């Protein structure tokens, strides 16, 4: 049986097997939300990481951009203290370099995650978000590969 700890170890040692770029948010105007972007998964497996960037590369744009992830139209990945939906800032969520947040979330083929960004800066931003995933089909293959090099 594969445990969540096994999945994390595989992802740390062998990397992800899929990189999924969220559909383009386009340019997000000052103090506005982006158009919510649907992402429907094509594989069964585990999302093991989230990444975020802004096209300008400036710290101010990065720190002023926030993200909401809604799962299946009924659940938010990030919630406030009352259990309501929350936007988390890129800087707090992803940190500086390498702009990454570890996550372990089971997904199945056809699951829908809707991503929305918000711009809190004085100018426009062009954010991008992508996810890393280890698919069920690749877990056994990765485990064998990692074991071979231990």
Structure description:
The structure is a single chain. The protein is of the alpha+beta class. The protein has a single domain (4-138), classed as Jelly Rolls, CATH 2.60.120. 23% of the residues lie in helices and 36% in strands. It has four helices and nine strands, in the order H-E-E-E-H-E-E-E-H-E-E-E-H. The protein has helices at 4-14, 59-63, 90-94, 136-149, and strands at 18-21, 37-40, 45-54, 65-71, 75-76, 88-89, 100-107, 112-119, 127-135. The strands form two sheets. Strands 2, 4, 5, 6 and 8 form a five-stranded antiparallel sheet that branches. A four-stranded antiparallel sheet has the order 1-9-3-7. The two termini are 20 Å apart. The mean pLDDT is 89.
Task: Tell me the helix content.
Answer: 10-25%
What is the first-to-last residue Cα distance? 20 Å
Count of separate DSSP helical elements: 4
In total, how many domains does the architecture comprise? 1
CATH class term: Mainly Beta
CATH architecture: Sandwich
Report the sheet-strand fraction.
35-45%
What's the assembly state of these chains?
single chain
| C-alpha-based Rg, rounded | 16 Å
Average pLDDT score? 89
